[in-house]
Amino acid sequence: MISGGKCIVIGAGDLTIGEIRVQEEDLLIAVDGGLDYCGILGIEPDLILGDFDSVSGQAEEKVNALENRIPERVVRLPKEKDDTDMLAALKEGLARGYRDFRIFAATGGRLDHTFANIQCLLYLKNHDAAGYLLDGAGMIHVIVNEAVHFQKNLKGMLSLFSLVKETRGVTIRNMKYTLEKAVVANDFPVGISNEFIGEEAEVIVEDGALVCMVSYEDS
Question: Residue 102's CB: how many other CB atoms inside 10 A?
């Protein structure tokens, strides 16, 4: 890994953006049907990974041709396995030294895939890395025993959901609805639909894990 590089991962969910900027030091992984999106976006993946059950016929031909020419750029996974294709891609990025993951086309489509990808964010956090599910309308990440700040120019909504039975010591500052050292449980969605108010917002978690969903408001 080149210092400062990101691992950019493109899944097979809904693609809601028209451009992804990739720097020389980044690692770009196309996960299964994400290879079709790379063609749409005009970007070339460094690694193609998956069981390839959701790629188009044209993309499958590309995988086969690349596997013959440069086999190290293709990781073919069995269809029956414990790791999802996405988790396998994240593990590959971690093994190569990346700790900043930007994940596109990982929501929408099948709800179970979206939920699994949210769990993958917690996997990254538990392995000293940070991951973000990104689309044109917002982002999803997880907050674990830390403080997170949001720029004051953000407009839109922020929702928080506990990934564990109880997340304790939850503080929310400089938003429409505030909390101070509260307990957020996983069976009561009290953290939904908070609003940015033009100030630098802060969310603190003392003990536990929250899914943080940000929905941007059009300017």
Answer: 20
Angle between helices 57-69 and 34-41 (to 10 degrees): 90
- The residues that bridge with 139 in the sheet, in sequence order, are 134, 214
40 by DSSP, 3-state: which? helix
Helix (H, G, I), strand (E, B) or coil at 164: coil
Q: Which residue has the tokens 């403080």?
A: 147
Largest CA distance in the chain: 58
* 100: three-class secondary structure by DSSP: strand
Nearest residue to 200 (alpha-carbon basis) of 173, 182, 169: 173
Q: Which residues contact 174 (CB under 8 A, 6 or more apart)?
A: 152, 197, 199, 200, 201, 202
Q: Record the pTM.
A: 0.90
- Strand 100-104 to 7-10 pairing: parallel
Distance CA 157, CA 144 (A): 20
| Alpha carbons 122 and 124: distance in angstroms, whole number | 5
Digit-coded pLDDT (tens) for 125-150? 999 999 999 988 899 999 999 999 99
